[in-house]
Amino acid sequence: MAKKIKIGALISGGGTNLQAIIDACESQKINGEMAFVGTDNPTAKGLARSQRHGIPHFAVDYGAIIKCYRANNADSPPPPDFNFDEILAKQSLFPKDAPVDHVRQFFITRAIAEADLLSEMTPYRFDLLVLAGFMRNLTPYFIDRVNAAENLPRIMNIHPALLPAFPGTDGYGDTFRYGCKVGGCTVHFIDYGEDSGPIIGQQAFPIAPDDTLETMRKKGLQKEWELYPACIQLYAEGRLQLATAPHPKEGEKRLRTIVKVLPA
Ligand code: GRF
Q: Relative to the CA of 157, which ligand 1 atom is closest?
């Protein structure tokens, strides 16, 4: 049997996706093992899950870092290897004409937090980093330091909507309020934008006339707990390959990165 992959996870909340991944590793649906669990939220309930399974865990308190930056009148220094111009050129979280002070504050505070995350992660070797309800956007500062090998992305995310519809923090809520008759979830690699990276897998489910947002969310989570481990297993089997395709709106003028799933 192929070597088990080592999986790091970042969470912010209850961690039911984390639990599904831990269980899938333990039942060998994923040929992998957990290396660590990190969070931006020291009170994340999901941390108890890592404790229960003996998985090393740590917290980097994003809220405290951002508060401290504001209290210091934006005087906290960014990490020594932070290059704002380079990050500005790469990022697609903000439009090009967004107020530069706001954008600078965002990327400096995130880079301070991300440098802490990276140093907490240093002791653990990992092949894949999964975002399992991690409610912070990662910036090019962090992404480039994790995706060090070209053409081998190693950060996955699960999003509670059928991307590219409804990116952002409330995928189920946005899908439901729009009056969609189908909801879904998407696993994708992270790129420099918000929920815009190449799609690995999706699962859809019907939204019935008598569904409430809560019942719809429950249906969605059930799908997430199947989809995420299945996509991680594709990664473990080496079956995910990046390819390029014409951009849906701009055609051959601008190529888009997509994921091809290789046959078993
Ligand atoms: C999930 O719906 C996930 O798609 C979204 O946040 C929620 C996290 O749930 N990003 P949990 O913490 O895994 O229970």
A: 10
